[in-house]
Amino acid sequence: MVEQRLYKRLKDMREDHDLSQAAVAKILQTNQQQISRWETGTQMMGVDKYVILAQYYNVSVDYLLGLIDKPKKLYE
Question: What topology is assigned to 2-64 in CATH?
Answer without folding.
Answer: 434 Repressor (Amino-terminal Domain) (1.10.260)
